[in-house]
Design goal:
mainly alpha, two-stranded parallel ribbon, about 10% strand
Length: about 375
């Protein structure tokens, strides 16, 4: 069974590794390795070569990481706790190494831009579409009524069936479906999972809301086309957020019901694994088909190559961290990756992050 666990974890890691490999192909054509560029420069041979080299290097590192993980996991006698340690160490080292590789390409890209002086040769503009906020940028948060109904129904059922819940509640299972940790029954322990569900759904609502509220970023070469692409990008990720939240809520509600009814543990574990893997694959396909900001969405419109987006590289530290205290925007698209990041120059960004951390720690302490 431990072999199956190692292989399953490997299968789950693969989409993440592949995603990191191809990030340069999924970013906007006005950005390359965290540096703003003219869109028509994106397809030059020099930049194509850089993207190809990055993909090959990260691909080789990913392959070596997988081989080391499989070799160590399959050919040594490891406990499940050791497997968890191995997974954490593997992911941490991979992320550190891949970020260092990114920094090398980021610095090279900055040097190329400095030498070419694109910003001085073309007119810099900032595109703002007055009808952008009138578009349907995300789907309604009313969809989250579904998980809320599930959660509160589960809570009511838990209270009504409290006397039938065993005195020892299973809190942790190994991959064989055997219980490895119990908690003494109390209202705190039986409600820990529903409270966690509520917190997660509130996070999903927060993410779905920021999907529509995040900063407008349009290409100056063709603002109309860029608006259509960005609208589709936001809608697709909004749908992913909503239905991902609903599916996760259904899964956790099923786990909660196992405290009351006899549900085979093998079924719970299999369902959890399939659900997590399906969500990861869905995110991978969505990233590939849509790209950052909708850059891979096909929209046929003419463009103008005489202008370039306003150069705000000075606000992007290492091409990854946006720090601009004069920009009231809190959420902004990542320059290298898919999705959004925060404006770390605004104190509210730190308040939000610290708030999430404190609430998460509180929920963890509640379940202990």
């Amino acid at each position: 069974m431990m072999t199956n666990l190692i292989l399953l974890i490997t299968l789950t890691l693969l989409p993440a590794f592949i995603s990191i490999m191809f990030i340069p192909y999924w970013t906007r054509k006005t950005e390359s390795f965290g540096v703003s560029i003219p869109a028509d420069i994106y397809d030059t041979s020099a930049l194509k070569s850089m993207r190809k080299k990055y993909t090959i290097i990260i691909g080789v590192i990913s392959l070596l990481t997988i081989c080391v993980f499989l070799g160590y996991g399959l050919f040594t006698n490891m406990s499940e706790s050791m497997v968890g340690w191995l997974v954490g160490t593997t992911i941490t080292l991979f992320m550190i190494i891949s970020f260092m590789i990114y920094l090398i390409f980021h610095q090279k890209m900055k040097q190329i831009k400095s030498t070419a002086k694109w910003g001085r040769q073309r007119t810099q503009k900032l595109a703002i579409h007055t009808q952008f906020r009138q578009q349907k940028l995300r789907y309604s948060n009313n969809w989250f009524i579904v998980p809320f109904v599930l959660i509160f129904s589960t809570i009511i059922l838990t209270f009504l069936s409290y006397e039938h819940i065993p005195e020892k509640i299973p809190m942790q299972y190994n991959f064989q479906g055997e219980i490895t940790n119990f908690a003494t029954k109390s209202y705190r322990t039986v409600l820990a999972l529903p409270i966690t569900q509520l917190y997660l759904i509130l996070i999903f609502i927060f993410v779905n809301t920021l999907t529509g509220k995040a900063k407008q970023q349009l290409s100056t070469e063709n603002p109309e086309k860029s608006m259509h692409q960005n609208t589709i990008f936001r809608r697709r990720w909004s749908a992913f957020t909503i239905f991902g939240g609903i599916i996760l809520s259904m899964l956790l509600s099923t786990v909660q019901l196992s405290f009351i009814y006899s549900i085979p543990q093998g079924f719970l574990i299999t369902t959890a694994v399939i659900t997590v893997f399906a969500i990861i694959i869905w995110a991978f396909i969505l990233s590939y088909k849509t790209g950052q900001g909708g850059s891979r969405v096909t929209v046929s419109m003419d463009s103008n190559g005489k202008t370039v987006n306003r150069d705000d590289d000075r606000y992007w530290k290492l091409g990854q961290f946006y720090v601009n205290k004069d920009d009231p925007t809190i959420f902004i698209e990542k320059r290298f990756g898919i999705g959004w990041t925060m404006n770390w120059g605004r104190p509210i960004s730190w308040v939000i992050v610290i708030g999430f951390i404190l609430i998460t720690l509180g929920i963890v302490l509640l379940t202990i």
